Amino acid sequence: MSEKVPMTAQGHAALEAELRILRSVERQRIIKAIAEARSHGDLSENAEYHAAKEAQGMNEAKVADLEDKLSRAEVIDISKLSGETVKFGATVTLVDEDTEEEVKYQIVGDLEADVRNGKVSIGSPIARALIGKKAGDSVEVNTPRGAKSYEILKVEFLG
After folding, report:
1. Which member of 100, 106, 132, 136 has the greatest number of CB atoms within 10 A?
2. Domains detected in the chain
């Protein structure tokens, strides 16, 4: 039994869009590159041909990987979630207890994590520290720059 991969509906849609591009646009581009390289003659010393074949292999591996992940996707509809405790899909507003700086993170699946856009993986140290907590709680998170203390200001489920 394969392990389910939790993700938001937006994350699922983004993976499907990436898969469509790999299957149509990228496959066609690579097929043309292989045909072009073949037309140059001797394949044994044809760098363009070998590069195109390698690109084809990498593209097909990525397609297979995305197909696998999408087949195991457990899409979680955040608009149907509620509650006061932090769990998958929650958007959590925190304040750094040392700097008073506010940050906001949404807890998402591993495949859709993007810290620059405020999306942290359910498996990340900060998400693991937050799960099960609620507004008013303090959490300690071990970061690459040392331990940080945050107070949870707000827990929301923004679909």
Report:
1. 106
2. 5-76 (1.10.287.180), 78-156 (3.10.50.30)
The tokens describing 120, both together, are 């942290």
- Phi then psi dihedrals of residue 93, to 5 deg: -100, 125
pTM of the model: 0.78
DSSP class of residue 22 equals: I
Task: Write out the E strands in the chain.
Answer: 5-8, 73-76, 91-96, 102-108, 119-121, 138-143, 146-156
Task: Please identify which residue in the block is written with the tokens 């693991």.
Answer: 128
What digits encode the pLDDT tens for the residues 55-72? 999 999 999 999 999 999
Name the residue with tokens 């849609």.
13
**Beta strand pairing status for 138-143 and 146-156?**
antiparallel
The three-state DSSP-derived secondary structure of 25-63 is HHHHHHHHHHHHHHCCCCCCCCHHHHHHHHHHHHHHHHH
